[in-house]
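To assess whether ligand presence alters the predicted conformation, the chain was also submitted together with adenosine-5'-triphosphate. Input:
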Amino acid sequence: MDMDKLVSLCKRRGFLFQSSEIYGGLNGFWDYGPLGVELKRNVKEAWWRDMVSGHDDIGVPPGAPEAYEMCGLDCAIIMHPQVWKVSGHYDLFHDFMVDCRESKKRYRHDHVRGRWVSYRDQKIFVTTMAEPDHEQAEFQQKALKFFNLRGKDAEQLQWDGEAVSLGKLKPPTSEVLGPDAKALGTLTDPREFNLMFKTIIGALGDETDSAFLRPETAQGIFVNFKNVVDSSRVSVPFGIAQVGKSFRNEITPRNFTFRSREFEQMEIEFFCHPNSSHAWYQYWRDRRFQWYLDLGLSRERLQMREHHADELSHYSTGTADIEYAFPFLPPGEFGELEGIAHRGDFDLRSHMEGKLDPATRPLQVELGPDGKPKWRGSGKDLSYRNELTNEKYIPHVIEPSAGADRGTLAFLCEAYHEDQAPDDKGEMQTRVVMKFHPRIAPIKAAVFPLVKKDGMPEIAQEIYRALKKHMVAYYDEKGAVGRRYRRQDEAGTPYCITVDGQTLQDRTVTIRDRDTLEQWRVKVDDVVDEIRKRIS
Ligand code: ATP
């Protein structure tokens, strides 16, 4: 699928707009239009319903080690600044960046890869941002250009060592040829960027009143763990879910909404006994993977990627990413939709004792130069007592952390289809159809009177109003009926209901299926039940 076609459909039909577009847009920020808002709400509602409100707290779900409870939270975006110091975000939530003085571009230090090459008595470190598969060709092209050579002189170049990331090599910057530079030594030394958005609390606030927009929703759950345990009757194992905005000052927002600076997360922190934590980790991995399949992502484009030991965070004993083959990625590459991490007792312990030192085993509180905790925890007891056995312990955490915008983007990519359908004259035409799963389709049914007379609009409006009590429905009486179908196909509406001449005689209407184009007749009074049955 051509990504440009999807992007233009999204704007044309009101799924997604660039934020503040009339002022030229703001990089990394997006607005959901009338269709997009319904789609994204449906994604979030499906998640909430399937994970939280529809969860059976009493029975054992298939694949789960035992029965468990689920509840929700809705926390403030701005939290006590200490939260981010203790969680490690304040110290660790950064990328090292280099700027190019010549091209004025900025790169993530570890994304720039390069290789030593010499010609006659000059040796340089030539770099590129190309994918590893294509990088050697890029290196060669850049080196030839730099040394003023032609393609046929390529064998005169002497390559030294393998290609490595700039972050690993740290050559003297004076010998580095930047990815988009013509001259040597134009890259700055790497600089740290904190990805958290800073803000000031209070009208007269100064630096000491600074706070951060949350970069994840998870911390709101951890700091409320005790509140939830004390105020509701949940017992371990149980999960707390939250859906909400997160903010990251991403250096290179790109790929449509995939990497945005403001986005929404759907996160669960699942608290369990350490002994059963691995079984729960397996359960949540599989459960979350199946969720995307159930909502229509294809098995071929979805993958579960278990992290290698050297990729894991210092506290995690298992992390898997659910990834989707987004069409903007090169063939064979996948982008993360959701991460499922076994976080051990890292988070609750940090909020009790203070920021933990990643270099220690077992983890110990990180100390400052004065020998005191670098960032103090709350000092509150966040352990859990099993009332039956009296055992007291700090629960382990399994965290399925999904992005609502990335999920929505994957559903948009998956839905986009072009096929052939007859127009009003019966001639085959290419049609664009968004084949959303009915649960997430923005509009569930559209109702058309074939013509704007003979009492057809009245019957169509009656059906429309009856449908509206249960679902998002749309009424359209403008233009040729074929064009009305096309508009609904582009919006991804699964069913179109048409009132025609026969309706006036026998009070039946046609229902048309978006995907099969099949049409059949039902009684006007049965339309609501029929559509409800089909979209559930
Ligand atoms: P990436 O490596 O792609 O930056 P991450 O591993 O930092 O992602 P997490 O911190 O695990 O992401 O966040 C959980 C989920 O939140 C991700 O799986 C993704 O769906 C979503 N997410 C994270 N960053 C962004 C972003 N900049 N824009 C949109 N969604 C995001």
